[in-house]
Amino acid sequence: MVPTERRQSLEFGFRFNRTVGNRISTVEVPVEKLMLTRDNKLIEIEWVMHFHINRPEDYVFNLPGVSGEQRNSPSGIPAEKERILRDLCMAAMRRIFAASPFDDGLTAGKERIQEYALNSLQSTFDELRIGIKIDEVLLQDTNVSESIRAEYYSVTTAEEQVRNMLYQAEAHANRVVPEAEGRAAILINEGEAYKFRRIAEAEGEAARLNLLQEAYHLNPNLTRLNMWADGMTEVWQKLKVVFVEGLGETGGGGTLKVLPLPLDVIYQDLRGGEAR
């Protein structure tokens, strides 16, 4: 009798074990777990293949092995048939991992490996006509081999530190570069404004001198008088009124506008010091 309606499973890298009280535990099979990746790193894989028999005549006659309870393995499959199936599956999976990068087997590449393993194994089974239809291939657990675990984590930590430093540098650049560009834009705008202001002042001064030259040609005396008055305006604004005693022919008091000299100089002059 061939159980065509029953879904069967083969575990690789481990085995289910029923203990007392029908508790199910697992037992590791190290020889099946260890695989070599494309970048020459060791990885440990536990996986399961679920399948059913869809062509019993091919399963009985084309897959070697003697049926019978005395030859059955714990999986319920005759021992010889199970050994051949395991050899085919292990060969296919080792070939797939030998062509895959190490990181794919640990992270994002697991789904791709599962799909590729299913298609590859099904193609092999169909070519051999052993009457088995694969339902799914599941990678249960993938891990770094214990023999390289310490070195792997050391390299991973170093790579993570490098990535963090790159992220920090990029964040610093994203913060500093806009600030520098903003300061540069402000300096450029201030320079342009200063240039326009100086040009406008120079043009205004040139226009004023041209007008002054024309006025001088028309009336030199009046122009010189106006220029002298303009120049003295700043001087007159700084003049101060100082009260000086004993000034004048009669010896009376009086006032005199003088330049804003320091007070000690003024007092020295009033005491008969050298005139300045």
Average pLDDT number = 81
Helix content: 55-70%
* Portion in beta strands: 15-25%
Radius of gyration: 52 Å
What would the CATH topology of the domain at 8-144 be? Tetrahydropterin Synthase, Chain A
Give the H and E element order. Answer: EEEHEEHHHHEHHEEH
- Using the alpha-carbon principal axes, give the shape: rod-shaped
Main sheet characteristics: 4 strands, antiparallel
Assembly state here? Answer: single chain
* Reported CATH architecture of the domain at 8-144: 2-Layer Sandwich
User: What's the helix count?
Assistant: 8
Spell out the CATH superfamily of the domain at 8-144. Band 7 domain
Q: Report the end-to-end length measured between terminal Cα atoms.
A: 138 Å
Secondary structure class reads alpha+beta
CATH class call of the domain at 8-144: Alpha Beta
pLDDT under 50 segments (min length 5)? none
Number of strands: 8
Any overview of this molecule?
The protein is α+β, with helices and mostly antiparallel strands and 276 residues long. Among the domains are: 8-144, Tetrahydropterin Synthase, Chain A (2-Layer Sandwich); 239-276, no CATH class. It is 55% helix and 19% strand. The chain is built from eight helices and eight strands. The chain has helices at residues 30-33, 56-62, 79-98, 102-106, 110-128, 149-218, 220-238, 263-270; strands at residues 8-12, 14-18, 24-28, 34-36, 42-53, 132-144, 240-244, 254-258. Strands 1, 4, 5 and 6 form a four-stranded antiparallel sheet that branches. Strand 2 and strand 3 (24-28) form a beta hairpin. Helix 3 (79-98) packs across helix 5 and helix 6 (149-218) packs across helix 7. The protein is rod-shaped. The mean pLDDT is 81.
